């Protein structure tokens, strides 16, 4: 498969019906760190995309079946930005609360929680889908409904925005809009396409005002590249780093990393690879997929072609120093950038 190269900085803002990928969007979001703009804004400063929004009514539903846990050991919405000094990120590890099944053939590109269901965007040509999942009490996952994409489309990032789902596509400058009502007897259907100024899809998130594709993220002044799947948790933007078993907690105003969540070892890759080989299917790929259930205060993570999805709680990383976390989480180079 051809490698995807992520855009370094794109913030799409929305006046009533129009999204702008220009510098005004960055100012509107308040992103101060502008390193790594590259040629995108020079080439695309005037690019815009119009999405004609129509109201969609969501059916209010309770949380998915199973035990709802109280606040995590470290509450991601309340934890101070740093445990060392105001300018240094905190470091966290994790505890697995529950392991869920995950389709090992799902090339996960986007994951989100809405009204008691998980919604997942999957990629690869001829295999891309949008699916609604509900979680069982014993780790099982029920696919409530699934829509295949056209064989020419490669599904990418997924976001919920004011009653609709928006799914980006890879290398087409397009996305798909969906009407959705979560639940067994509800619906999920395509509602047309929209144009974007994006050459690649990657992750996307909605912060209540802006559609955020990739912000310019820094740690101690160092640009962090290959930010992939995005999730808003409280007022923070969380993102996984492509190829690393790590999540970055990001201040969406400054673009600074406020915390590193080290997920090293969350998937037994050797065992998963052996199972995949025995089943004659592809082995597990990179970590990709973050979802936040704000009512249950639950965080879910998974990866491309992973056989499992995990509900996790944050724990203070007493045995991982900040410097070690940086070595584990920060790429030494952008593997997608032409040299």
TrEMBL record:
Disordered: region residues: 62-86
Family annotation (InterPro entries): QCT (IPR007788)
Keywords of this entry: Membrane, Transmembrane, Transmembrane helix
PANTHER family registered for this protein in UniProt: GLUTAMINYL-PEPTIDE CYCLOTRANSFERASE
Name of the protein described by the UniProt record: NFX1-type zinc finger-containing protein 1
A GO molecular-function annotation: glutaminyl-peptide cyclotransferase activity
Native organism: Cladocopium goreaui
One Pfam short name: Glu_cyclase_2
Residues spanning the membrane: 20-41
UniProt keyword Transmembrane helix present: yes
């Amino acid at each position: 498969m051809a490698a995807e190269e992520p855009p370094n900085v794109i913030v799409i803002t929305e006046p009533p019906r129009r999204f702008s990928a220009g510098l005004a969007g960055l100012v509107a979001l308040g992103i101060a760190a502008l390193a790594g703009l590259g040629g995108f804004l020079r080439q695309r400063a005037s690019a815009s995309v119009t999405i004609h929004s129509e109201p969609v009514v969501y059916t209010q539903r309770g949380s998915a079946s199973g035990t709802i846990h109280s606040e995590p050991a470290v509450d991601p919405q309340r934890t101070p930005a740093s445990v060392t000094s105001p300018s240094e990120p905190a470091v966290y590890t994790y505890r697995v609360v529950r392991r869920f099944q995950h389709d090992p053939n799902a090339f996960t590109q986007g994951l989100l929680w809405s009204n008691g269901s998980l919604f997942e965007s999957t990629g690869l040509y001829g295999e891309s889908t949008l699916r609604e999942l509900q979680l069982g009490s014993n780790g099982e996952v029920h696919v409530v409904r699934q829509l295949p994409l056209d064989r020419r489309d490669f599904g990418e990032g997924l976001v919920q925005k004011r009653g609709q789902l928006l799914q980006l596509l890879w290398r087409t400058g397009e996305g798909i809009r969906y009407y959705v009502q979560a639940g067994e007897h509800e619906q999920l259907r395509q509602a047309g396409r929209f144009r974007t100024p994006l050459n690649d899809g990657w992750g996307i998130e909605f912060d209540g005002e802006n559609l955020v594709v990739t912000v310019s993220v820094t740690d101690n002044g160092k640009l962090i590249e290959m930010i992939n799947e995005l999730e808003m948790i409280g007022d923070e933007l969380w993102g996984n780093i492509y190829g690393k078993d790590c999540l970055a907690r990001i201040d969406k105003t400054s673009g600074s990393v406020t915390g590193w969540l080290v997920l090293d070892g969350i998937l037994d890759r050797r065992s998963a690879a052996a199972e995949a080989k025995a089943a004659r299917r592809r082995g597990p790929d990179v970590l990709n997929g973050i979802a936040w259930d704000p009512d249950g205060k639950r965080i879910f993570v998974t990866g491309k072609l992973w056989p499992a999805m995990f509900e996790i709680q944050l724990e203070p990383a007493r045995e991982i120093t900040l410097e070690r976390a940086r070595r584990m989480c920060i790429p030494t180079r952008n593997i997608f950038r032409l040299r």
